[in-house]
Amino acid sequence: MEEKTKKLIRALIIFLIIFALAFLVEVYPMLFTNIHSGNFVVWHNSTVMEIAGTLKGKKLIIDPYGFYYIVKFKNVDSKLKSGSYSVNGINSVFDIIDTLEKGVPSEQITVTIPEGFTVKEIAKRLYENGIIASEKSFIKNASPMEGYLFPDTYFFTRGESQSKIIETMRKRFIEVLPKDFNEKVKEKGLTEKQAVVLASIVEKEAKFDSDKPIVASVFLNRLKVNMPLQSDATINYILPQKKSWLSTSDLSIDSPYNTYRYAGLPPGAISNPGLKSLLAVIKAPKTDYYYFLSKPNGETVFEKTLEEHNKDIAKYYGG
Questions:
Q1: What is the pTM of this model?
Q2: N or C, which terminus of the chain has less Cβ within 10 Å?
Q3: Which of 160, 176, 192 is the last residue of a domain?
Q4: Cβ-count burial of 3 within 10 angstroms (0-12 exposed, 13-18 middle, 19+ buried)?
Q5: Residues 210, 202: contact at Cβ < 8 Å?
Q6: In terms of domains, do 186 and 289 share one?
Q7: Residue 94, phi then psi, degrees to nearest 5
Q8: Strands 83-87, 38-42: parallel, antiparallel or unpaired by DSSP?
Q9: Residue partners of 67: CB distance under 8 A and separation at least 6
Q10: Statement to judge: residues 209 and 309 lie in one domain
Q11: Helices of type H across 28-153
Q12: Nearest to 285 by CA among 201, 189, 200, 212
């Protein structure tokens, strides 16, 4: 009986030690990582597990699941605020949670960049929100990154440096892009740049996400046979003002972005595509379609021949 008691006491001691270590890992991870400060971003509409993953990546916590359950236990999962955080003097997970509940300082500006915005439209949005002082300067600096400034909700401060804004959006593009993107675009016979350019066109041409892969397949089919893409969106990109209907003179503009006159892809992206448009390129199905038309309600009609396409134009637009 005495031996059984000793075994029970030993087991209890071991259990308590393990429990104490687990408690310290979950609540006081800084004791093990010796990291009490850091910078991180909580993106708009992030889940608790996504936030936990970000914190683990910055070594502010050790166990994402532990963080998740502590947040759930405190019943504050809906109170954690998005923003760009810079934390110091963190001594426990509760300090982090309290910081996330309070949110970022009021001088931080939240700005949303919609999918398909061009550099010019991004510059205007940033200027209107008081983040940059000059649209013209931003356009000059950011234009080489057209296509790679990922559309998302960002957190900037008034007077944020343009280089930091551009780098933040570029890094977000890299974060979101699938790891096997380059491998997949090679299967489509494209380089990464060509895929981004194509995605930027798909973003402008297709209103609904479900249509995007098939729209991409139409352009891929045309590229294979050296058939002009004939994308209105590429011409609108170089016009001073966007037009719903292009004139004969518009279609005759001598520009590498005029995909009516020149076969192949334009030299650069015409917008900054969202993830769905980027994925549409690598997930484009094999089709026999060479034509498509956007109906008045935004839905896309696909056809194999010019004759069928012309019938669609007559049907939906009386042409």
A1: 0.74
A2: N
A3: 176
A4: exposed
A5: no
A6: yes
A7: -65, -30
A8: antiparallel
A9: 26, 48, 51, 52, 55, 56, 61, 93, 96
A10: yes
A11: 30-33, 48-57, 64-74, 93-102, 119-128, 135-142
A12: 212
pLDDT for the residue 29: 84
Hey, what are 294's tokens? 């956007």
Residue in the block written with tokens 């893409």: 229
Rounded alpha-carbon distances, angstroms, from residue 38 to 79, 86, 170: 21, 6, 21
CA–CA gap between residue 126 and residue 158 (Å, rounded): 10
Task: At 242, list the tokens.
Answer: 């966007």
291: part of which helix (H) or strand (E)? strand 291-294
Enclosing domain of residue 132: 108-176
Q: Is 214 helix (H, G, I), strand (E, B) or coil?
A: helix
Query: Is the Cβ–Cβ distance between 231 and 269 less than 8 Å?
Result: no
- Count of domains forming the chain: 3
Q: What local confidence, expressed as pLDDT, does residue 23 receive?
A: 74
Tell me what pLDDT residue 291 has. Answer: 95
> What values do phi and psi take at 42, rounded to 5?
-105, 110
pLDDT along the chain (319 residues), means of 10: 73 76 78 88 88 93 92 92 87 92 81 97 95 93 98 89 95 95 95 98 96 97 97 96 90 96 97 98 96 91 94 85
